[in-house]
Fold this sequence. Notes:
Blueprint: E1 7-12, H1 18-29, E2 32-35, H2 39-51, H3 56-79, E3 84-87, H4 90-99, H5 107-110, E4 118-123, H6 126-136, H7 141-147, H8 149-162, E5 170-175, H9 181-197, E6 204-207
Parallel strand pairs: 1-3, 1-4, 2-3, 4-5, 5-6
Helix pairs in contact: 1-9, 3-4, 4-8
Amino acid sequence: MRRRGRLVVVEGLDGAGKSTVVRALAAALDAEVGTTPSPDLRAVREAAERALARDPLAVRLFYAASVLAAAAAFGAVLDAGRDVVLDRYWLSTLAWGRLEGLDLAVPLIEDHLVPADATLILDASDRERARRIGRRGEASGHDRVALDPAHARRLRAVYRDLARHPLAGRTAWLDTTELDPEAAGRAAVARVRSLLARRPRQGVLPVFAEEVAAS
């Protein structure tokens, strides 16, 4: 029988290196790459946010719909035996909802989502994230919120809590503050391979910069 593909998700704060890590994981696993929102939804995201701005719940439901669309799109890829690496998935939608006092963890949505096999949550210091985002150019609205120290603290706490969510699968936290892109990619690949080799877990495994040499 053909094995089912594995869903690997990269979550975390803006500027922590998600795009770099996603590319490294996709290359190491020979996996398909996806994002939420998908490129076609990203093209209309700002317009959707403006149109829905008076209702924060409506904005978050837009992002929930993008996650549902990703799950549907990559379900067939997983069934065909290919691995998938996603840049953001359900935890990000829940985390940003909680930041606004909203709880989107309802069966109507979650029953239709594919559980991840492994989730890697990235972080970096506020100063380093600001430096990286600055190098990318003009910060988006999400970037500016995530760079606010108070909001960043709340997001970190929410992600740590959500790491135990059933749809996250086996989870680990990677601090990329002291890592260049190549080192971050190596550390992420080593940790995700370890997570995928484990039996289903409960709990979060921390990964810090000093562990990279061993990987």
